[in-house]
């Protein structure tokens, strides 16, 4: 039995001002919108209605409820073991991108803005959110063909997404933009949440820290045994060289598409990787580099953005960019 009124999770004022989850979650409304969430609801030691964030099924049900209630996305699901991303943080990335593209002017809306999501996964969270919030077009790429096949089923069930999102398979595991960006493409931005661990063991340690922080913040017992509560396949969570190695490859490849992309961007989980990125971008004589801070609760992260075009050239690029079909 779900109470008709309940306290929501504490407000997160670290989120972007336009983020619709700054006031927390209304679990009662979410459960009404998505009934499978009901069985995962619990009351914390602080008297707040919540879920057990250490349980993958609970996190997945919460995501499905959020996507249905706030974005009108139905039929969202992921296969067992795949990454289940927290929605508020993913929405934040998109809002910061919108501010970057606006560059002090009007925030771009509609399908004239086209983005490339690197490693879109089976969840497709960035294209789904970006097309729902801003009406942007997206290309989502991934090396996992099965993940893309699953995501296509979700897209097909949502008319807005079906009009705005296309998927491309990356056949070369060591490449990022190569074999994905085609000669006729012109992207306003690329985005990526790179795998930031070097191994499965390191990923488990990171999940343990995450669960410890979540439990402590909610007055819950810290679990002794840990699973990857947000899931994740190997290519989603770790790679050779970890985050630094992935960023090194991304920056190196980006120069080949300098005239086809207005802004290259990526999340940077580890601040110690920034000096390396700055050095590599300087070596490639990138015209503009920006670091956009992001905060969610106690978590600090940032978006690294770079463009091979200066301010004047970016304005010209926007005017002359071919219009999407």
TrEMBL record:
GO terms for molecular function: 23S rRNA (adenine(1618)-N(6))-methyltransferase activity. It holds the Pfam family Methyltransf_10. It catalyses: adenosine(1618) in 23S rRNA + S-adenosyl-L-methionine = N(6)-methyladenosine(1618) in 23S rRNA + S-adenosyl-L-homocysteine + H(+). It is found in: Cytoplasm. SUPFAM superfamilies: S-adenosyl-L-methionine-dependent methyltransferases. InterPro entries: METTL16/RlmF, rRNA_lsu_MeTfrase_F, SAM-dependent_MTases_sf. Its main location: cytoplasm. Its EC number is 2.1.1.181. Keywords: Cytoplasm, Methyltransferase, rRNA processing, S-adenosyl-L-methionine, Transferase. Belongs to the methyltransferase superfamily. METTL16/RlmF family. PANTHER family: RNA N6-ADENOSINE-METHYLTRANSFERASE METTL16, SAM-DEPENDENT METHYLTRANSFERASE. Specifically methylates the adenine in position 1618 of 23S rRNA. This is Ribosomal RNA large subunit methyltransferase F. It comes from Shewanella yunxiaonensis. The gene is rlmF.
């Amino acid at each position: 039995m779900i109470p008709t009124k309940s306290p929501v999770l504490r407000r997160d004022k670290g989120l972007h001002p336009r983020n619709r989850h700054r006031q927390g979650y209304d679990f009662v409304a979410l459960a009404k919108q998505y009934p499978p969430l009901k069985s995962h609801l619990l009351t914390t030691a602080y008297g707040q209605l919540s879920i057990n964030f250490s349980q993958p099924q609970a996190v997945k049900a919460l995501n499905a409820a959020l996507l249905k209630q706030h974005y009108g996305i139905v039929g969202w699901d992921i296969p067992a073991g795949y990454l289940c991303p927290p929605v508020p943080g993913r929405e934040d990335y998109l809002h910061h991108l919108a501010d970057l593209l606006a560059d002090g002017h009007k925030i771009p809306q509609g399908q004239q803005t086209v983005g490339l999501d690197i490693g879109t996964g089976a969840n497709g969270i960035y294209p789904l959110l970006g097309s729902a919030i801003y009406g942007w077009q997206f290309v989502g790429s991934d090396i996992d063909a099965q993940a893309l096949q699953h995501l296509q089923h979700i897209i097909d069930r949502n008319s807005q997404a079906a009009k705005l999102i296309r998927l491309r398979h990356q056949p070369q595991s060591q490449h990022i933009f190569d074999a994905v960006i085609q000669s006729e493409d012109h992207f306003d931005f690329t985005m990526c949440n790179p795998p930031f661990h070097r191994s499965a063991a390191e990923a488990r340690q990171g999940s343990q820290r995450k669960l410890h922080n979540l439990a402590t913040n909610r007055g819950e017992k810290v679990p002794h045994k840990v699973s990857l509560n947000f899931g994740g396949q190997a290519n989603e969570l770790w790679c050779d060289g970890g985050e630094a190695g992935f960023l090194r490859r991304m920056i190196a490849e980006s120069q080949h598409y300098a005239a086809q992309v207005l802004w290259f961007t990526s999340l940077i989980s580890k601040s110690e990787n920034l000096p390396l990125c700055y050095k590599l971008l300087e070596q490639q004589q990138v015209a503009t580099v920006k670091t956009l801070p992001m905060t969610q609760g106690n978590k600090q992260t940032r978006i690294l953005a770079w463009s091979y075009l200066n301010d004047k050239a970016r304005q010209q690029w926007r005017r002359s960019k071919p219009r999407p079909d």
